[in-house]
Each structure stands twice: as structure tokens, then as C-alpha cells.
Amino acid sequence: MNEHVTQNPFPTSLLEEADGEGHNASDNATMGEIISKRFSRRNFLQGSLAVSAIAATVSPVALMSADEARAAGKAGSAFNFNEIEAGVDAKHHVAEGYNADVLLRWGDAVLPGAPSFDPLKQSAEAQAKQFGYNNDYVGFIPLKGSSTHGLLVVNHEYTNPHLMFPGLVKIVDGKVSQNKLSKEQVDVEMAAHGGTIVEIRKESGKWQVVADGKLNRRITSNTPMQITGPAAGHDRLKTAADPTGTRVFGTLNNCAGGVTPWGTYIMAEENFHGYFQGKLPEGHAEAANYKRYGVPEGSYEWGNFYDRFDLSKEPNEPNRFGWIVEVDAMDPTSTPKKRTALGRFKHEGAESIVAKSGKVVFYLGDDERFDYVYKFVTDGTFNPNDRKANMDLLDKGTLYVAKFGEDGSMQWLPLVHGQGPLTEANGFKSQADVLIETRKAGDLLGATKMDRPEDIQPNGVNGKVYVMLTNNTKRKADQVNAANPRAENAFGHIIEITEKDGDFAATAGKWEVLLKCGDPSVAAVGATFSTETTKNGWFGMPDNCAVDSAGRLWVATDGNSPKGTGRTDGLWAVDTEGSARATSKLFFRVPVGAEMCGPLFTPDDETAFVAVQHPGDGGEDWAGHGRPSYYEDLSTRWPDFKPDMPTRPAVVAITKIGGGKIAV
Ligand code: FEO
Ligand code: CA
Ligand code: CA
């Protein structure tokens, strides 16, 4: 989700982790000066990386010669393609020699009987059969092991009413306002959230949706779900509609996600706080819990029509969101399960890998300034020969929170009731309490406060784990720590973790900063892209990422802008190995106002799916528009470019012209 709230005139559409609605008031060490000293010493000792970092920060001339080196093909990069120019316009762009075809747009048919998309007559009933809004996570579940036929699973994170509905925005004397939403519009929003499961097939080099796919499914904010794991049935999860504390309608704000080794679809619930409004009854026991999560934030208007989103009427409902949801995509009648064992926070994603022991490890980010990095290790082991045997692996296991040491070591601290400070004296009567208030448990364990942890990707080829840290402009100089080394970190960074003995289930490991992001030609930014990185290759705000089958890292960004970085968001190829380490190249970029989500490679590395989220959301700071962007006056009408069609978030399939693996 886009951080640039100040550029957006439509406060009701905003819902932002980055605004610190939740609040980490714990005094977990921000290790301060000792660490900044240590950090400069480490950089000095790190040889080539440090040298290139220093060169990159002080010498624009060095960058120009890097451009020339790249043009001559001397970079030693693992990626072979000619990068595109960074910039801003109304269209998407992909590297020469590649097709970037729009596969699925907001409003496209997913289920049989879906009406064709008519933005002037959109209804909840139509929306519930059509592709939802603001595609974020994209996963691919191969059918019969195929890389050209499978299920595409896509999260629909949130809605932008000012871009979706005609007649909502008014500008009078330069003042922008937005009308209240009708119940019908709220119902469309609820049906546009959630996820899509859709069969797709590649024929003659082009991906197509299988319109009558038997497994096609829409999941929305009203889909019945089951709550499982240690917090299921707890009193704090009970409501008037569900006295059992085990049944809940729908999922909210599904950001990144994952596909498990056994082929289920994981939807992470991120900024759930924004959907709640109203006041808790005076002296209510959940007050401190909700404050830590920023509940209620009241960005959405659903509580005007549905009591469960109003705290004064249904005070426990927020405890039923902020979980990891697992969906059996192979059974369209299956009930999605909220797996409480993986904790409750603003879950960004849930990428997984099978450890040496056969246990499965899920890496989890809590996307808020000063919040934490987590992982979950299953008790049971993955059975590759019996899919059914894996179906409840996510109900039993250990959740850990990361503590990054100032010496480059790290520990994974278990969030287990009764251990350390996680006791009744501190308000935890059971493991359910630990999970419902995961953030508080992390605070008490002394976890390291991070700069907005987003997607975290284990890499099975090189054995490392990559952590995207988007930014944190609120970090003060006395709050820097080794793993978050920049005050007022506007551009974010990427950490590389090496688990102990190469075991993803280990409880200790080492870490390095792979990359401090931002413009390397501005010394004050302190970015550490290699000198091989061109003026097009650097980026800010790493958010989602993918590792292809060759083990190469691809980074998608959220928050680049005409004014901030002179470029839109996009997909960058980032070298992690050898002399090219920390070299980045721009492969694809989105239209103005959009954020880059996905990305995902098919197992044969011949297709990259990317999700273009909230195109046209903004454009005031782009010379091509220069004023607020809303339904009637959009900064882009991507991807259709028809005067009667609004801009539509869409999934794009990138393939090499003539076929073959991408970027080799
Ligand atoms: Fe939904 Fe943290 O991005
Ligand atoms: Ca994200
Ligand atoms: Ca990912």
C-alpha cells in the first residue's frame, strides 16, 4: 500500500501502516551510538561492498562510467537484459524483447455468469463474480506440475473509492472532498476485497484465463471462514454472531501472501485496523490491545451499515482479524482457515520453505514502523507424498520473533506462553493471549524494532533469506540500530539472513545489510548500490520480492514517485552474488500512481506475473497531470485507455518474445 498520504486528497481511501496508527511504545533497545559506531566499522571491514558503497555515495562520475560499463556488458550480473529507463508516464514499460500482457483486470469475469464490467452499473453481486480490486500477492499453483497450466491466486488488498465510483469526489474552490459511500458502494467494496483463484493456461505463448475453470473462486470480506489453532474458541474472539469464537465472515486487507509446499494459498491480513470505527465501551479490557494495533482507524465506512465493524456494538470483532488465512485452492467448496498459531499482527506475507528436518518454515513481516520480523516453524514435517497429511500443519508449531545483534548475529526468540516474560503476571493467561497480542509479546521479549518489515523471501538456492524493509522516516538518530542503520530512513533497505548451519528452522543466525536504498549519487542518502548500478537501476522502498528458480532476487517497490525519486515503482533485478552483489537493474515499471506488487515466476522461469496496484492513485506531482486524480479526472486510464473506462488494477504476464527463460 502506498505511503504517500500527504499527496492524496482522499482521506477516506487511506489506510496506512506507515502512518503509525499502531504504536510501539515499548522501550526495546534501539542500541544507539554503540551500534552506529559498529556499523561504520563493519562497512569498513567488508571490503569490496564497503568500497563500492562509498564510491557510489560520493561519485556521480563513477555512476556514469558504470553506465558505460553496463552498455559494454561488463557487469558480471546474473541477469541478462537491457534495462529500461526509469521515469514517470501513464503507461507500463518492460525491457526490450519482452511482452507484458494484461491478463486480468478489476471487473474481469472469474466465475460463470459474471456480467461484463460496467463501471456505471457496478453491483456487489457482479463484483463477487469478477476479479477484485487492488491486486497484491500473486501466486501460481501448477496443475500436474505444469509451468503453462495452473491456478493463479491473487490477493485483493483494498479499495480506492475515488478511483472506482463516479460522482464521489467534488472540488470546490480548489478544495477536494469525497461524498459518503452508499450501502451499495460499501457492498461493492466488500466484494472487491479478498482473493481470486482462477485457472490459467498458456497457449501459443500467451496466457489466457480458463473462463469455465472448475476451481475458479472468489473470496470476499463475507466468505465464511473457520478460526483454528491455539486461539480458536477463546472468549476474546467471541461475538454476538459467533458465540463459539471459531467462525468469521471474510478476510480483510490481504497484502502479500504465499503458496505452501503442499499447494495451499496463503492470504495475509495486513491493515485490518482501518475497517473498524466507533468506541469501545468505557474501561473495556481490549483497550490496550487495540491501541497497540491502531484499532479503530476508521478509514472505511463499513461500520455505518454493518455492526461488526463498530467497536461500540461488537467490541471483539477486531481480534478476529490480523491473522494468516490458508485456503485449499484445489477445493472450491473448502472453508478458508485463519491459522492463529502464526500470530496476530499486520501480516505482510508468508513465504515458506521446507527445512532440513522436513519442518516447514514461514517468514512473516509485521508492516508498521518499529515493528518486528517473525518466523513460524511447524511441529510436524512436510509429507511430499500425501497432500492431505499436510493440511493442518499450520495449527501446531512455534512462532519466533527476530532480535538482530549489533555484531551481525541474530536470535529467533520463541513466543511461547510461560517462557520468559510471557506469563500471567504480564497479562498472558494462555498461548491464545500470546497470539492475540503478538506485538506485546514481541515487545516483552526485546525484539528489534524494524523499518516496516514487508515481504520476506527464503532462497532455496543460496540458503539465504531476504527481508524487505520499506522505510521509516520516523526513526530518530538516537533510535538507529545495526539492522536499521539510518535515521529518517526514507528509502528503506534489504537485509540478508543466513540461518545457522544453513537450517531454516534454526533459532540463531547471522545477517548483513544487502542494500541501503535510494539515489546513490546523493551522498547524504547513504545508499549502497554497487557502482555498476546505473541511474535507472537504483530504487527506493523495497516491498514485495521474488526469487526465481535460478535463485535470483527480484524486488518490487512501493512509494517511488515523480517528486520523491523521479520514477514510478517497478520491478528491479538485484544481484546478490559475487562482484555484482548489490547491482540493480530496472526490468519493468508501472504507470503513474501505481505500486508494483506480485511478483512471481513460474517454475520454468519463462513467465513473471506482476500486479499493478492502484494505478492513477495520485499524479499531482507529475507534470503530465498536476492535479488530484479521481474517477472523472484520472492521471491514467491504464490499461484500457478508453475515455469511458476508469483505470483498473491488473495482473500482467511478462514473457520473452519467442519464448525462453527470463533475463538469461
Ligand atoms: Fe500492503 Fe505493507 O503493504
Ligand atoms: Ca506490500
Ligand atoms: Ca514474495
Automatic annotation (TrEMBL):
SUPFAM superfamilies according to UniProt: NHL repeat
Annotated segments matching region Disordered: 1-28
Residue spans of biased composition, Polar residues class: 1-11
InterPro entries named in the record: PhoX, TAT_signal
Domain of life the protein comes from: Bacteria
Pfam entry (one): PhoX
The protein's name in its UniProt record: PhoX family phosphatase
Organism: Rhizobium rhizoryzae
